[in-house]
Design a protein that fits this description.
Length: 196
Amino acid sequence: MTADPPALRDGSRRKAARWAIGVALVILVAGGWAYYQNSRLPKRFGVVEPGRLYRSGEVTPGQLERVVEQFGVRTVLSLLDPDAPESRAERAAAERLGLRWLNVPLRGDGSSRPEDREQIRRILFDDSLGPLLVHCAAGSNRTGMACGLYRIERQGWSYERTLEELRQYGFDDLDKHENVRDALREAAAASTKPAP
């Protein structure tokens, strides 16, 4: 029996070590990616009122499952086009999870009509529907307007405080968003809820 020359043994060890490191990296990256995917919430996810109202941007079926598991959401209010492929997938996921899926479609700039806002209020203020997730695509304009109505009329927030929260969630506050500001100003003027 002959022994391998030392140079050959060192080369084999290096190859084996590189292979082991490569496998470990693949496992680490795959595990990290799986963890990231499983723990992710929708973009701009936020708590408006714990156990009652949550907000976000667009929701994938997997994210919806996580929101249900983590926050006990029972109803989804989508402010998107109900016929969009993403909305159809979300509605199917909601049905599979036993959730109520409601829809009040609004334009992307958050503009709404008084009857749209009244429908949103009826949904948001109906305690039997909670915990509730309200969302649009980005989680800023349409969702901001809906949650702003809730903040002002249910929680007694001022128009200024509400607008500041909208900005924190990505509201650009441009000229084209005057309809959103008007809706919130009207709500604040009509609100009888005392400030917290």
